[in-house]
Design goal:
25% strand, 17 strands, 10 helices, alpha+beta, 7-stranded antiparallel beta sheet
Length: 383
């Protein structure tokens, strides 16, 4: 009987929708929640177990013994039907996780679906209202200490403000339209952390925050996305919602240590932390710096941008070097390994091949104006 049920389960796994994890779309799931009736991957199965058997009962498809009633439940439901029920009213601004996404994003997606049933009862979706306020732990600009700060999100005002003292003016006001937010667990060392990146006086500023409660930090992330979407829908009423969603938030295409020279051929290589944020390639002394030491805007290939393996004549080759050419200058860079170099070249090359959007052109113009202002530091400084 056990062998028969195992064979049935393996056949069910081949049905459309069942061959991908019901929660993160990972291929070839090997686990299942038999009371919910879904096939899930190993990573998601651990989250299901953590919710308790009153929410989800998990078994391995091959290593565990399957009862007839459990197999029947899997037959009756499956991933496609379960998604129709538990994802009935997912807001367009809500980020659906993928297999390699941060743990907190996947965990809160699963808990929102099955434990809190947020997508069955929209009144539970507190992040879609366009306004949110609360306290987050914020990293200091000059030191590594985190302090409790009040944050207020206002879709109506296009702002995210934070306060040192509630009875005083905000310490900073961030424009939502120029704000990017990304999960930053590996960089910060805290699973429930976010990185806010925005333009301030023509240069980029980073703010690092966290909250001990995973649900709260996830709600802040989604609230920012929802507020940005609502404002874009007003500004661009004829643009399809799908296209607008692609502009809400962006994970960094790549981050890591590279060696970089100055503008002169004789300049030596210095180690810098690089971050590729859409078309901005920023470099820092430390991964958690509040400001980049410099920023390189990467435009379209036909406008004079290119990338290749190797360095210019007269520049010492570090072994895994490559050169980024812009209309202003050639940047000589070097990675730690051949594989890392090839990955950097690939992601930057993908940016160069992509035509500029109006929003990207506006950012480029702001950066160039700052660079040409003799009273300001150069965003393309050789520092």
């Amino acid at each position: 009987m056990t062998d028969r049920n195992e064979r049935i389960m393996m056949e069910l796994l081949k049905c459309p929708g069942n061959n991908f994890c019901a929660d993160c779309d990972c291929e070839n799931p090997e686990w299942a929640s038999y009371n919910i009736g879904i096939f899930i991957c190993k990573r998601c199965s651990g989250i299901h177990r953590s919710m308790g058997v009153q929410i989800s009962k998990v078994k391995h498809l091959k290593l565990d013994r399957w009862e007839d009633s459990q197999v029947q439940r899997m037959k009756e439901v499956g991933n496609v039907k379960a998604k129709l029920k538990y994802e009935e009213r997912v807001p367009s601004c809500y980020r659906r996780p993928k297999p390699n996404d941060p743990q907190v994003l996947i965990e809160q997606w699963i808990r929102a679906k099955y434990q809190r049933e947020e997508f069955s009862y929209p009144e539970k979706q507190t992040y879609i209202k366009g306004h949110m306020q609360g306290f987050l732990m914020k990293r200091g600009k000059e030191d590594s200490r985190y302090q409790r700060r009040k944050f207020i999100l206002s879709e109506a005002d296009d702002t995210l403000k934070y306060f040192i003292r509630e009875d005083r003016e905000p310490k900073a006001t961030l424009r939502l339209s120029e704000l990017n937010v990304a999960f930053a667990p590996e960089k910060v060392g805290i699973n429930t952390s976010l990185q806010f990146t925005f333009l301030k006086d023509g240069t980029t500023r980073h703010i690092y925050v966290y909250h001990e409660d995973p649900e709260i930090i996830n709600n802040w992330y989604m609230a920012i996305r929802c507020a940005k979407l609502h404002r874009l829908q007003v500004a661009y009423p004829s643009v399809a919602e799908y296209d607008l969603v692609n502009h809400l938030t962006q994970d960094f295409a790549k981050e890591g240590w590279l060696w970089k020279t100055g503008p002169r051929l004789s300049d030596g290589f210095k180690k810098r932390w690089f971050t590729l944020d859409n078309r901005k390639l920023m470099y820092h002394d430390d991964p958690l710096d509040a400001y980049p030491k410099g920023e390189i805007f990467i435009g379209y290939a036909l406008d004079g941008y290119s990338i290749r393996i190797g360095v210019s004549t007269g520049v010492k080759d570090m072994g895994f070097s490559f050169s980024l050419t812009t209309p202003e200058r050639i940047y000589h860079l070097s990675a730690q390994t051949e594989a890392d170099r090839d990955q950097w070249i690939e992601v930057i090359e993908n940016v160069i091949k992509r035509q500029m959007t109006p929003q990207e052109s506006a950012i480029s113009a702001r950066l160039v104006r700052k660079r040409n202002n003799s009273n300001s530091i150069s965003l393309f400084s050789p520092r």
